[in-house]
Amino acid sequence: MINYCWKNADSAVVGSEHGLNVQKEFENYREKIAEIVSGLYAKKDTPGNWLKWMNLGYNQELVSEINEYAQSVKGKFDNLLVLGIGGSSLGGICVTESILKPYWNLLDKEARNGMPRIFFLDNIDPDQTNGLLSTLDLKKTLVNVITKSGNTAETMSAFMIVKARLEKELGASYKENIVATTDESKGILRKIATEESFKTFVVPDDVGGRFSIFCAVGLLPFGLVGINISELLRGVREMDAELKNTNIDKNIAAQNALIHYLMDKKGKNISVMMPYSSRLKYVSDWYVQLWAESLGKEVDLEGKVVHAGPTPLKALGATDQHSQVQLYNEGPNDKLISFVRVGKFDTTLEIPRVYEDSELGYLCGRTVNDLMNAEADSTRVAVTDYKRPNITITLPVINEYYLGQLLYMLEVQTAIAGALYNIDTFNQPGVEQAKNYTYALMGRKGYEEVADKLSKKIACV
Ligand code: PA5
């Protein structure tokens, strides 16, 4: 299993001004946590609770369906182009970058084991989109358009551009290059997919975008590039078995949720996610969305205005030691840092014995692996010396199994934190508002009144 250590958040290590008496807090919250955890598991199958993501690790039928489809298209496409944004892309980027490793797209087909390159188009920047489309041979590209609502302007406009080009290049057979992942019945994309007979996969009911990584939203692109989705879900299930435990001493998601919640109350309202691995860089992006959209809420469950929510921040070790760590050590003591460590990297890289007689001699014969781990240790010790609380999660190695554990643990941690904050973890009125304003500004039917109000506001800016 992945390992979790809260020792450096304890007052015994960072002092009582900045640390928590962790064991005492576990006692204080023992009953509350037991109630929250048992409540989540009791409510997870009831429609309307948005907790069906807790069942996704067990969907073997979907695994078979995806593997079958992946087999049926294997070798036909050089590229997989994923269109989606927010919860419909961040999980995909996070897992593919972690498992395929950076530079996958630069490998030749043999090195990719016959699997396609993968591109995510999540932003709608015209220069980026034009740039990508000018390099891709669309005839050899499978397009996976992902949107739960089926309406999101960014995703659907990218899809319309790509679809028009595909049709122009391929004629009627363009449909074979499209697979859509969307709601079973709602949304414009579902309607189009039915009318034009696209292959489709479903985003299940009661699974919100940021909790959708383990349904077809994530699993389909993973399966299409050869990621072992059975192993990913095995990791999810094994973590799920641990997290069912209502005893806080045994439940790392509950421990981490409580520590984050209490640190926020202590004024440490910035939650830094800092993996020491380039492959895990986008775990931070995924976590930032999960934490921000789930916990950043104006009102609590009783409707009281609370403006809750710690601010998540992404960092990468060792790179950000040369960028952000100065602030972490000596700036305001308002952060709880989560280090993510890797026990063993897949490869070893030795630093050659050049310049041995110079001041660089100490590096000779050592490995980059040693250097990375030394950097992680030194930063952890330094921030702790500065009395900055931090926790560490260690993955023995980076593979599907441990990544499944890590990501599922962070999902459950978020749900438990939401319950501690007493907010609705699973809505996103702030996101919906921005979406509606965009529809209005772009002239969507039914949004005329909003457009009218907006034009007055924009005039003032
Ligand atoms: O987590 C969320 O709900 C959002 O970030 C959505 O995933 C995002 O807005 C994209 O929505 P959709 O999948 O409907 O296109």
General description of the model:
With 461 residues, the protein is of the alpha/beta class. It has two domains: 3-43 and 233-421, Rossmann fold (3-Layer(aba) Sandwich); 52-227, Glucose-6-phosphate isomerase like protein, domain 1 (Rossmann fold). The strands form three sheets. A five-stranded mixed beta sheet has the order 1-12-11-7-10, sandwiched between helices. It is globular. α5 links the parallel β2 and β3 (117-121). The mean pLDDT is 96. It is built from 17 helices and twelve strands. α4 packs parallel to α9 (216-224) and α10 (229-243) crosses α15 (400-421). It binds 5-phosphoarabinonic acid. The site of 5-phosphoarabinonic acid has 15 residues, from loops. 5-phosphoarabinonic acid is lined by residues 85-88, 147-149, 152, 155, 208-210, 293, 428, 431.
* Assembly state of the chains shown: single chain
Please identify, by name, the CATH architecture of the largest domain.
3-Layer(aba) Sandwich
The biggest sheet amounts to: 5 strands, mixed
CATH C-level name of the largest domain: Alpha Beta
Shape: globular
Number of H- or I-type helical stretches? 17
Report how far the terminal alpha carbons are from each other.
52 Å
Radius of gyration: 23 Å
